[in-house]
Amino acid sequence: MKNNQPFVAGITGGIGSGKSTAAKIFEELGIPVYNSDTRAKTIQNENSEVKVKIIAAFGEEAYHENGLNKPFISKQVFQNNEKLKLLNSIVHPAVFQDFEDWKKAQKSNIVMKEAAILIESGSYKDCDVVISVVVDVETRIARTIKRDGLSREEILARINNQISDEERIAKSDFIIDNNGDLAHLKNEVEQTFIKIKKMI
């Protein structure tokens, strides 16, 4: 730890890249993982200040009796980059503070922040190292169709609203190739883990 702060490894990747699977493998290796996307969903449902701002930006339809109206919000933001930026500007500061609180509670000398928009949000600047999980576009599409049941067109729209792998790689210290099977991914993660441990 430096100044009693744990070493922060950020991990990111586009839709269907397998970043969450990679993060779980890191977790199995002993690194506490903060899932920004999961926490963001919780914050959007439970943080009253965030809810007020989202309703002001997107209208009453943004929430229903069960919480955030995810299909409505997804349709709004994934087809409009400006609305996506607006949503991120509301949610990101709350997630940042939530991560800081979580980090302080960890006993490990290294923690991991998993985030789909680690680069876009600027969060990568708060990480000691950045890891990008990359995979070819067709594999990403096939995996996401299987996982989420979305159409090819819907997935391509989301991919086009995210930064490219080339842009992620330019901001990354480590690249994990996920074009193989699970055993290949585990090996990639383990090799990256060894390199990071040497940096602490």
Task: Tell me what the structure shows.
This protein is an alpha/beta fold and 200 residues long. It has a single domain (7-195), classed as Rossmann fold (3-Layer(aba) Sandwich). Helix content is 56%, strand content 14%. The protein has nine helices and seven strands. It has helices spanning 19-28, 36-46, 48-58, 70-77, 81-105, 137-148, 152-161, 165-170, 182-199; strands at residues 7-12, 33-35, 63-64, 67-68, 110-114, 129-134, 174-177. The strands form two sheets. It has a five-stranded parallel beta sheet with strand order 2-5-1-6-7, sandwiched between helices. β3 and β4 (67-68) form a beta hairpin. α2 packs across α3 and α2 crosses α5 (81-105). The longest helix has 25 residues, at 81-105. The protein is globular.
What would a concise description of this structure say?
With 200 residues, this protein is α/β, with parallel strands linked by helices. The protein is 56% helix and 14% strand.
